[in-house]
Specification:
Length: 132
């Protein structure tokens, strides 16, 4: 990989879409290099690493606003602050899993009621959704 990349080559190298890079630029996550007169913008090769960082952080559940915060952390305090953010994210994921398990149980019960009452006048699922 050369030292400077066009946006198309940067997108290919990072495994993202060109529009994704432009969106990240608008969000302030990736710098937009100056465009030379009559030429194309060229991105430093290090931008590929930054894009990989952003995508990996998203895969772990971090929002783009949270990713911006991670990118802005100073080297000195980065580990402590990052651990705190990751612990908060982990707790949020745990709560979402608990909420999903509760939803799964409620829907499972409704589906069983619906199957047991196949010839009834009303649908137990519709009745449960319509309750005040």
């Amino acid at each position: 990989m050369a030292g400077k990349l066009t946006i198309g080559r940067l997108a290919d190298a990072a495994g993202v879409n060109v529009e994704t890079i432009r969106y990240y630029q608008r969000r302030g996550l990736v710098d937009e290099p100056a465009k030379p007169l009559g030429g194309h913008r060229h991105y430093p090769a290090a931008t590929v690493k930054r894009l990989h960082f952003i995508k990996r952080a998203q895969t772990l559940g971090f929002t783009l606003s949270e990713v911006a915060g991670l990118l802005a952390l100073s080297e000195v305090s980065a580990c402590v602050e990052t651990r705190e953010l990751a612990a908060q994210k982990l707790a949020l994921i745990g709560q979402k899993i608990a909420d999903l398990a509760e939803m799964q149980q409620a829907l499972s019960t409704l589906v069983q009621q619906c199957g047991a009452d196949a010839g009834g006048a009303s649908c137990p699922i519709i009745d449960a959704l319509a309750r005040d």
